[in-house]
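FAQ

Q: What does a record look like?
A: Structure on top, sequence underneath. For example:
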């Protein structure tokens, strides 16, 4: 493919994407395919000769699009938002065109320095403590990771290595292997699965502590767990708190947790993957309480900031602790500008060596939407969720499971878990909207999240009509089955009476 064909293909692809996103409501949010559908449509080996890009683009429509779950659809209400925007898509295209791998400053100075700039922009926009900015006097700063999973793992690994070094300095008689075998970490039983996975990858058990009835983890619960472990000879390392839990978007009590972590010298990381976007709103200022005392935190730009996946912001109070834990230098990685102030080599702040130019799409998105545009986007999600919440409350057949939190509403039809399961199955079979279940204390419930690109009030009304009409249909079916079951019981009773009478008459005649 030469430049001429690339221009043609690229322009056609942009038109395809624009048409797809503009008309996304025409597609059912869930695909109507069975496992293995694509394996039957594609050849088992790559083509020997080149094929026309027109054939390839045609096959996107023919075989790929039918197997897509439409995450940008306004009828997508599962998990949390995985947002995108036209500016972000353009930024992704430009980054792919440059094709750089920015593991050090010299590999592309703009890649490193633009990331420093946009991470400080974002820290100010979210009103984070100043020590998280690169421009501050301290050793803190921000970095773009691929996902919250990576950010959490970086925090867990760095805290582990710092704990090993610190403990051996005060207890040189204890071997390193013995120290590592006694390490332990903490989080809530409402936290994301990536936190448990980080413990597996770090070879360090993570105790999932019970949240309160309001789904919140508090300092007293953490204190009790740490005291138990210290008494048993274990070494507390890190607590991963959550602002915006996966199930209900609950907010752990950062202030009481930070007090306990400071007392026992335990690293405190905050996973604010979803709720972090609300830090920017004055009306949500309570969410920022205690953040001045945490060691690290992360927030997914691909949830609220209209930057497409993957793009997760992570801030460190003392980046040197991560650099010291991850630093592996080879001669081919060195350059004469190493170590200059405010010019980090971000390869020391992450798991992989290579780095994508993610800052470019962040920069373009922030510039074309502006701070007020981003704040309005978050507020729009909140207002749409309030609209849905009111519809739930007005229908006496449903009940709220937790208070609405940002763009999430947790609710269920009244009754046992079976009716919740049956309702969700009917919705999934129809493929008009997409939600998922969650569970707490044995009660299953539905999560309705405002997710898609350009979601409107009419989309909320459409979703609610789909939900309440399917519950009506389910209840009518159950009522019909109950009547049939009752009729069968009456008929059985009639035959039993008839047979009893016949037997009595027969015995009397005998």
């Amino acid at each position: 493919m030469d430049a001429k064909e690339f221009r043609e293909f690229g322009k056609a692809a942009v038109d395809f994407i624009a048409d797809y996103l503009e008309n996304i409501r025409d597609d059912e949010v869930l695909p109507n395919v069975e496992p293995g559908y694509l394996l039957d449509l594609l050849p088992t080996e790559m083509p020997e000769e080149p094929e026309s890009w027109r054939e390839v683009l045609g096959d996107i429509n023919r075989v790929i699009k039918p197997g897509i779950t439409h995450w940008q659809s306004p009828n997508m209400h599962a998990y949390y938002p995985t947002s995108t925007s036209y500016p972000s898509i353009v930024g992704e295209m430009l980054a792919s065109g440059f094709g750089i791998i920015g593991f050090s400053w010299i590999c592309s100075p703009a890649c490193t320095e633009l990331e420093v700039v946009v991470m400080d922009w974002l820290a100010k926009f979210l009103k984070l403590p100043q020590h998280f900015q690169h421009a501050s006097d301290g050793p803190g700063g921000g970095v773009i990771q691929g996902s919250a999973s990576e950010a959490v793992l970086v925090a867990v690994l760095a805290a582990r290595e710092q704990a090993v070094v610190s403990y051996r300095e005060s207890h040189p008689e204890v071997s390193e292997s013995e120290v590592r075998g006694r390490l332990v970490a903490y989080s809530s039983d409402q936290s994301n699965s990536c936190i448990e996975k980080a413990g597996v990858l770090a070879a360090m058990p993570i105790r999932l502590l019970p949240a309160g009835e309001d789904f919140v983890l508090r300092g007293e619960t953490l204190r009790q767990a740490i005291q138990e472990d210290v008494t048993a000879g274990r070494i507390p390392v890190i607590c991963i708190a959550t602002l915006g839990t996966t199930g209900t978007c609950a907010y752990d009590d950062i202030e009481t947790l930070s007090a306990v972590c400071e007392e026992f010298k335990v690293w405190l990381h905050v996973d604010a993957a979803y709720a972090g976007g609300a830090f920017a709103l004055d009306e949500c200022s309570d969410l920022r309480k205690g953040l001045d005392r945490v060691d690290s935190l992360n927030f997914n730009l691909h949830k609220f900031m209209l930057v497409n996946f993957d793009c997760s912001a992570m801030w460190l109070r003392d980046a040197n602790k991560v650099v010291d834990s991850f630093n592996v230098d080879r001669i081919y990685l060195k350059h004469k500008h190493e170590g200059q102030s405010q010019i980090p080599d971000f390869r020391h702040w992450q798991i992989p060596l290579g780095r994508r130019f993610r800052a470019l799409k962040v920069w373009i998105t922030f510039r074309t939407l502006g701070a007020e545009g981003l704040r309005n986007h978050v507020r729009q999600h909140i207002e749409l969720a309030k609209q849905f919440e009111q519809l739930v409350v007005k229908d006496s057949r449903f009940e709220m499971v937790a208070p609405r939190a940002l763009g999430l509403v947790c609710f269920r039809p009244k009754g046992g878990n079976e009716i919740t399961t049956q309702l969700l199955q009917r919705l999934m079979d129809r493929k008009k909207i997409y939600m998922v279940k969650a569970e707490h204390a044995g009660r299953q419930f539905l999560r309705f999240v405002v997710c898609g690109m350009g979601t409107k009030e009419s989309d909320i009304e459409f979703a609610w009509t789909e939900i309440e009409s399917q519950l009506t249909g389910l209840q009518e079916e159950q009522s019909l089955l109950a009547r049939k079951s009752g009729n069968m019981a009456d008929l059985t009773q009639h035959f039993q009476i008839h047979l009893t009478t016949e037997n009595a008459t027969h015995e009397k005649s005998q």
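Q: Is there anything notable about this one?
A: Confidence is low (pLDDT under 50) at residues 497-510.
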